[in-house]
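User: Hi! I'm a student and our assignment asks us to look at how structure tokens line up with a sequence. Could you show me two examples?

Assistant: Happy to help. In each example below, the sequence comes first and the structure tokens follow. Example one:
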Amino acid sequence: MILVGQYDSPYTRRVAVSLRLLGFTFDHDTRSVFADFDSMRTTNPLGRIPSLVLDDGTTLIDSGAILDWLDQQVGPQRALVPSGGLERRETLQRIALASGTIDKVMGIGYERLVRPEHYRWPDWIARCRTQAEGGLAALASLPWDVDQRLDQAWITTACMMRYVRLAVPDLLPRDRYAALDMVSVRCEALPAFRETWPADYVVPSKG
């Protein structure tokens, strides 16, 4: 398999971490959505990352769809999202908060790093910031059991935290949310996370 996308995208990174944790082997295609846009569109017509090219040549796009496919391959006992019930609902809600926070921080990043200064919309940046702060606070208010089996909620939240601290670091200073710091420390110590450390931040494409 080939994973397409750079690890400065938290969406690509959560797929890479999940692949490693579940024992899949893959090659890493580090094309950039900015520098290699035309080439990227031959893999994904939307020109977004991540994409996962399967051994039979099939290409899966969007991290959520890729992660669902991975869970289907390993079965419910090893899947990173529970298959049903309250546990599944709660896991998906945490993932929604973490990915929603990513999207809002990404919006800030596009305004600051891509749009020329005289075209930037301060009110939009402030709105995205408020929404991101809401997501962080909501995640921090939830119980996180350090002895819990690592699932997709933990993975996505940890990838979100690293991304926020690279993109808009003043949103998530150390010690603001002890529970989230614990999530990050636990996850980032694992080989699957260390092996997917993001490069210097550039605005990634959503996926």
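Example two works the same way, sequence first and then tokens:
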Amino acid sequence: MKVSRSILASIVLMTITQMALANDDPTIATVNGQELKKSMLQFYALERRQVDPKGNIPADKLVDDIVNMQLLKEEAIKKKLNTASEFKARMEFINLSMLSQVAMIDFLDNNPIPEKRLRQEYDARIGDMKVTEIKASHILVKEESIAKEVIEKLNKGEKFAALAKSYSTGPTGPKGGDLGWFTPQRMVPEFSQAVLAMKDNEYTKQAVRTQFGWHIILRTGQREGTPPTFEEVKPNITAALEQEHIQKHINELRKSANISVDAKSAVN
């Protein structure tokens, strides 16, 4: 059972918003006598922000959406869609999902991962890790026949940077294909494997195919890099340890629970 910190954070924000508006929750619209409250607008805005963090939707558009939803809700009730077994099952699952996530974030808030434990994990995973960085350029083309044409010109002595400017469809083309220094893990596997197998100042005699197209790669250097700092990877380490932490908590809950699973009914 994975914990999405962003989802959990939105639940907390919703809870805080609900508490803040409990004593001051003005009506933003009335539909067929039904008052729609500001708290509903806040919840909806948070939900939209989760889907599109950079979206800036005007409040009046959000209100219109809520009014439309209320109209559709009334229509659903008139048609008694809310009494259907599928609807009831869906609502039970939503309730199950929301409450389980609230319970998880409550547990993590009251049992946070100590800073010392995070640093221990950093030292174990990354502290003394050796990082290799490669410097390379590439020419990206869409067709293998064009890649072969470029390699043929390289074999005849034409300059890599000039060919990159003429042929490459990638964003580094205007810069002569220069990718700068990078860790191989940042690249797609096919590219990483090829560049690691090369020697400095060597270009690929056969184009490397990836999801982006065909690459002609020129490797120009290798050096020992600096591993990421604790602060840079702290969010990732925290997320990983929190996942382990909540799983242990769930395992303890299962030990003290009376659980019976009907495998046949679950499969059929």
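Here is something you could point out in your write-up. Residues 41 and 59 are 8 Å apart (CA to CA).
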